[in-house]
Amino acid sequence: MIEPERIVELSRDVEVLAARGIADIQKITRETKLLAINALIEAAHAGASGRGFSIVAEEVKSISERVMGIADGLSANLRSAVSELSQVGQSMCFDVRGQRLADLALHMIEIIDRNLYERSCDVRWWATDASLVRALESLDPATCAEAGRRLGVILDSYTVYLDIWIADRQGKVIACGRPGAHPQVLGARVADAPWFREALRHPSGDRYHCSSVMREPLLGNAVTCPFSAAVRAKGKSNGEVLGVIGVFFDWQTQANAVIQGVRLSDEERPRSRCVLIDADHRLIASSDPRAVLGDPVRIETAREQASGYRTVNQRSIQAWALTPGFETYPGMGWYGVIEQSLPEETR
């Protein structure tokens, strides 16, 4: 694929070649004029016998002056035209590159949206699982253990989750899918966790809650994006709330896979940074391993504009796209952002 910067390179090549050619013309014209002047001097010394030659020399001098004027005018006009062409080329490079990066940023956040939509479906479906309902209805240790085994079977197939928990109405975790990996989870109190509080107050089984990206201490401080829903009597949408199911999406692994999958060329990747930020413009994922979760990311979005791009200090482009949501998942106001240093030839 031809890079847009090639236009700028070619315009500069034309400018150099044209300037070199005009300089050669001007040099030859000056030499011709000098020869004509010398011929006029010699003709004057020759007197009447050199009069005819002086007429020719005068004409040569006149022609050389006209050629010099044409060359000077051509040089000025060409310099102006090439300068404008270079500016147009640079502007085109910026627009082409900026729009492409904005499209890539949109694709990045769209993949996240589709992924999280599936999580919203999972949590509402599993909230109706009979074994989970029985465990919360009876709170019997054997029934709770059976619910935990059921969660383990689910996790064996759904590897995008770190764990799945069931908590009673008081916020005590009575079952989890990976008690061996996370022994501190069973019996833990999660009543103050946003994912638990929000799900507990939902008016219907059709509702779910998606929390912000966070570190979960009970999962070894792993970065996760919890989804939750109320578990209701008999699994009915309007049944009495018995407790809450929380599913802990493996955010770091899955988000990194999306970011690393952005279709940048090998030449672009070292001078690019792909990030995901939340509605408060805090970093939640980055292609830069040195980035810190929660760091602020400054973007300048236009009102009612779903995506866009801008220059940063005339040295880089920042492109962004707002989450469009997918199906019943409306999105959380997150953004995909790509920052890319401009190639030297376009600065």
Strand and helix layout:
Elements: H1 5-46, H2 51-126, H3 130-138, H4 141-157, E1 161-168, E2 173-176, H5 194-200, E3 209-210, E4 214-216, E5 222-232, E6 241-249, H6 251-260, E7 272-277, E8 283-286, E9 307-312, E10 316-322, E11 335-341
Antiparallel strand pairs: 1-2, 1-6, 3-5, 4-5, 5-6, 7-8, 7-11, 9-10, 10-11
Largest sheet: 6 strands, antiparallel
Helix content: 40-55%
What is the total tally of β strands? Answer: 11
CATH class designation of one domain = Alpha Beta
Organism: Stutzerimonas nosocomialis
Family: Belongs to the methyl-accepting chemotaxis (MCP) protein family.
GO biological process, one term: chemotaxis
Protein name: Chemotaxis protein
Can you tag this structure with a few keywords?
six-stranded antiparallel sheet, alpha+beta, 6 helices, 19% strand, Beta-Lactamase, single chain, 347 residues, five-stranded antiparallel sheet
